[in-house]
Design brief:
Layout: E1 13-14, H1 18-44, H2 53-82, E2 84-87, E3 91-96, E4 102-107, E5 113-117, H3 120-125, E6 127-133, E7 141-147, H4 148-169
């Protein structure tokens, strides 16, 4: 029996460090929403309601505080450490996920469209995302939160290289 093939190496590049700030901001916004919901629960659900309500009046704020700690203080740094991307001579690939690791690889020859997008928070942090699309619904590679100028250069390079491959095939 032959040995299994060696796994694809980890992509070379991390996302922009500014992505951490963006994720912290998203976490703060989420934590404020959860904190507001917990506060409304405490204010409008009477302690005298009986059943599990007295216990919930303690657990809900504790859960909201733990949620805030995780989404603001832990998750952004883990996401930064595990999201990686690379463009090689033959393909674009990403590695994402901290609980479930997902490899996505798109050969340059399969690229149909390359998009650069910037939502409001990305604009505030000087970031952009690159989406490399193929005809397959499973073949899209998204590289989020790159510096805007890097994202634009990557998109231009990939579009040019994909066009050259198509021209060579005809």
């Amino acid at each position: 029996m032959s040995a299994p093939p060696a796994p694809v190496r980890e992509p070379a590049w991390q996302l922009s460090r500014s992505a951490i700030g963006l994720w912290v901001t998203e976490g703060v916004l989420s934590a404020v929403g959860v904190g507001l919901a917990a506060t409304l629960f405490i204010l409008f659900v009477p302690a005298s309601a009986g059943g599990p309500v007295p216990l919930l009046r303690w657990l809900v704020p504790i859960a909201a505080a733990l949620f805030a700690i995780v989404v603001v203080g832990v998750r952004p740094w883990f996401r930064y450490r595990v999201h990686r991307w690379e463009v090689t001579e033959d393909a674009v690939y990403t590695l994402t996920g901290w609980l479930t690791r997902t490899w996505t690889l798109v050969p340059i020859a399969r690229i149909q469209t390359v998009d650069v997008t910037r939502d409001v928070l990305q604009q505030a942090f000087g970031l952009a995302s690159v989406a490399v699309l193929t005809a397959s619904s499973q073949g899209t590679v998204r590289v989020p939160h790159l510096e805007h100028d890097i994202a634009q250069r990557v998109a231009d390079d990939l579009a040019h290289r994909a066009e050259q491959v198509r021209d060579q095939a005809t």
